[in-house]
Amino acid sequence: MRDDIIINDRAAALSERLIETFETIFDPEIELDMYNLGLIYQIDLDETGHLHLLMTFTDTNCGCADTMPAEIVDKLTQFDEISSVDVEITYNPVWKMTRISRYGRIALGISPRGGK
């Protein structure tokens, strides 16, 4: 799991499968998945199987703001360990290009060094 995602122990136990799932959910305008784009801030899975996902979008007018949360809920509730999902959208902190992973930068043709 990325170092910039806050994740509790229950969710961390599913991290490989979560990452695989997040990598199948794309921002259609940027054509990069939500994991490598750096849209996820926090993942919490409680003892009842309820998963809370705190995420953002690249901007407040993102065209996928209506469709992506529903796709996330649909895909994550297919896990036996997850009974329900709520997706909370925040713009604080504001998403920045520095959140794009090294892989994402290479895929988008951006310097993989992140401007450093």
UniProtKB/TrEMBL annotation:
Superkingdom as given in the UniProt entry: Bacteria
Residue ranges constituting the MIP18 family-like domain according to the UniProt record: 20-88
Gene3D superfamilies: Fe-S cluster assembly (FSCA) (3.30.300.130)
TM annotation in the entry: none
InterPro entries in the cross-refs: Fe-S_Maturation_MIP18, FSCA_dom_sf, MIP18-like
UniProt-listed Pfam families: FeS_assembly_P
PANTHER family named in the record: FE-S PROTEIN MATURATION AUXILIARY FACTOR YITW
Full protein name: Metal-sulfur cluster biosynthetic enzyme
Organism (species): Streptococcus loxodontisalivarius
